[in-house]
């Protein structure tokens, strides 16, 4: 019974976070910003105010596909956020520019996350191969190797949290200091950013829980 509850929690956490994000984003993407600036314009204003004239703002395909690419120095905004003047689009655009500012300032956690990417790309694919071998064959050595590889991914998730929260904090500071949002919009923008942050919190919680479960299995395997 406990095993079933564990997997229900494991599935429910990210699903709940995604549902909350989509519901919050959908609500505030229909609320027009008083500044009248589209997401693309908001991003450009903040970038220029911070001297990041070399960072481009482009349109990205797909819903909530917004991101910042530190290699190409590009802020990519999904179509609705790029073209429309909404509170949600304003918040998301400012958040992605927050990452560009982090990059320009060599923010430590962002640099660490970038360095972990090559390791995680390899370990995330290989970890479960060794974990499954260890579980089915009761070979603790293979299981331990899989756990170590999986731990790299968990570390990446943990490092991502301060990166995302810091980008949101920077976003709000920029929106307020440049008078891009006013009055109730501040509270609404925070709701959008908080909902987005919860998806990262949920993903990290799931990763930590699964790592803890596998460590417990490994410990029991060695004892037996």
UniProtKB/TrEMBL annotation:
Domain of life: Bacteria
Classification via InterPro entries: Zn_peptidase_2
Keywords: Membrane, Transmembrane, Transmembrane helix
Keyword match 4Fe-4S: no
Coiled-coil portions: none
Membrane-spanning residues: 143-163, 192-216
Keyword Transmembrane: yes
Pfam family, one: Zn_peptidase_2
Name assigned to this protein: Zn-dependent protease
Organism: Planomicrobium soli
């Amino acid at each position: 019974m406990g095993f079933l509850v564990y997997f229900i929690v494991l599935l429910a956490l990210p699903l709940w976070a995604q549902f909350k994000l989509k519901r919050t984003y959908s609500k505030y993407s229909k609320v027009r910003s008083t500044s009248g600036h589209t997401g693309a314009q908001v991003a450009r204003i903040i970038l220029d105010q911070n001297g990041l004239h070399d960072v481009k703002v482009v349109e990205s395909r797909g819903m909530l596909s917004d991101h910042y690419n530190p290699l190409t120095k590009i802020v990519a905004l999904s179509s609705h956020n790029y073209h429309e003047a909404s509170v949600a689009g304003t918040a998301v655009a400012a958040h992605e520019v927050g990452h560009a500012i982090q990059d320009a300032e060599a923010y430590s956690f962002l640099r660490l996350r970038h360095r972990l990417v090559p390791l995680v790309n390899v370990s995330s694919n290989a970890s479960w191969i060794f974990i499954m071998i260890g579980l089915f064959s009761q070979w603790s050595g293979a299981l331990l190797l899989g756990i170590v590889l999986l731990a790299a991914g968990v570390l990446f998730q943990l490092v991502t949290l301060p990166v995302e929260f810091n980008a949101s904090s920077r976003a709000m500071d920029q929106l307020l200091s440049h008078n891009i949002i006013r009055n109730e919009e501040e509270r609404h923008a925070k709701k959008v950013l908080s909902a987005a942050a919860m998806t990262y919190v949920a993903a990290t919680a799931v990763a930590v829980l699964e790592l803890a479960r596998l460590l417990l299995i490994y410990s029991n395997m060695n004892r037996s």
